[in-house]
Amino acid sequence: DLRFLTKPVLIGHYEQDSIAGAEALIDRELLAGDLGQRYNLGLYAGPRGAATVVLRAPTEQERRRGSLSGAVVTGLGAYDGNLSVDDLTEAVRTGVLRYLLQVVDVLGKDTRELPLATLLLGYNSSANLTVAASVEALLRGVMEANSRFHETTRLDIRVSRLEIVELYQDTAITAAYALRQMPERLADLT
User: pTM for this one?
Assistant: First the structure.
């Protein structure tokens, strides 16, 4: 249940879409309307290459653990059914880079490994992407963001744990099977 997440969650948003579904639940239940506020101000992800990060100020316990809660919204571009694995990988990379920068702003430059939750992006709204393609794009995007962030900043801050959150059991099982295939498919990134 998304309402019980204790880490930031990555979600995708198409241009010109309203905040609905899981995104609306996250906005309402976890962020007290902060996503909607940014949307209404015109400061919301939608175009590819855009990302919006909302992090909650950490409690003392979260600060000791080095964890945060919030949302990372990454722009998926126009909803035209042409979202590719490369497009989704780019969107995930952008969202994760913005997240890492925001963590530096909130928690500082100390070495840390961060968890991130994510929905399966793109597969349910694009005829081109399967669950396996979504899983691959998520993992590639996170790995590429970690690498680029370190190369550019020389900081040892990275997303070390990615948890996929899925409501439907059959889709979750399909994602688990896809994850088993990923070490071979992602060997070029390690």
Answer: 0.91
